[in-house]
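tool=predict chain=A
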Amino acid sequence: VIGREAEDQAGLDAALVATDGTPDKSRLGANAILGVSLAAAKAAAAAHRLPLYRYVGGSGSRLLPVPMMNIVNGGAHADNPLDFQEFMIAPIGAGTFAEAVRMGSEVFHTLRRDLLAAGHSTGVGDEGGFAPSLRTAEEALDFVVAAVERTGYRPGTDIGLVMDPASSEFFRDGVYDYTGEGVRRTPAEQVDHLVTLIDSYPVVSVEDPMAEDDRAGWQELTARVGARCQLTGDDVFCTDAAILREGIAAGVANSVLVKVNQIGTLTEALATVDTAHHAGYTVVMSHRSGETEDTTIADLAVATGCGQIKTGSLSRSDRTAKYNRLMRIEEQLGDSARYAGTAALHPPRRRP
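tool=predict ok
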């Protein structure tokens, strides 16, 4: 890459992929490739004296995303019986991003007090959410709804609930093995269970509700609730535009999670966003469970206008750094800044 123009992002990224030469970037590794890809983008932005979000997204980049804030951890991210990996809140009724952060922080601290009062630990999991010894999704959702209401907000109107079961983690031998609950559910029973949760609580989005290998389950759930609930594919799409196109054709999900270091280059990540928007799918820009204080994804959320970001809880500096960056971007944009709000959960019009 020595001597290449930093402004030629697509050419640089193509050279990096070609140098690796493997289908899954196993020779150089996606993390190493991404470091070079993003460094070039940041260098080009600096040369133009532009913030990264403006350089990548252009002068029209002004939409601040709805944050999906992790407040209860389970699954592989916590040492507790909860089978579902994440329970989040999304301040869809906020007027600004800064207000959304304040709302989320208030609920987070109310939940802490409620958990303590009920005799639970308030230690945090990998993504900064609390990791109480709860057994079922219903128990976790009840605590979250109560915290939202006790803070003075309306569940489903001011603040929506978001779940990430990470179902691939407990899909074994064709069944969903809930070790915390002590039950095993068939794919059909898993669909029924999720539909019941969506109908019973103000859930606005579910990530990885079905396992990546359970395509029939994905199709059934999408057909049943896809018109009224965002169903976001992470493991099933892997931020790969080609895999996403296959899923779109098969009627899998209606949203995609984008993790830039999962695909490995900025160009490929942007291609996945474009593929999703072209098909009328929503996009959630995402961190990883193991994070640093780098804030690039905050800029990319604004640059792509995706309208949603998942970057952990209101604790741990590797998570709060992204929230702080987005508030600074909102300040820079001034009166031109727009907060995505509830509209972020509704897919863009499919392009021909």
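The mean pLDDT is 94. The first helix runs from residue 9 to 20.
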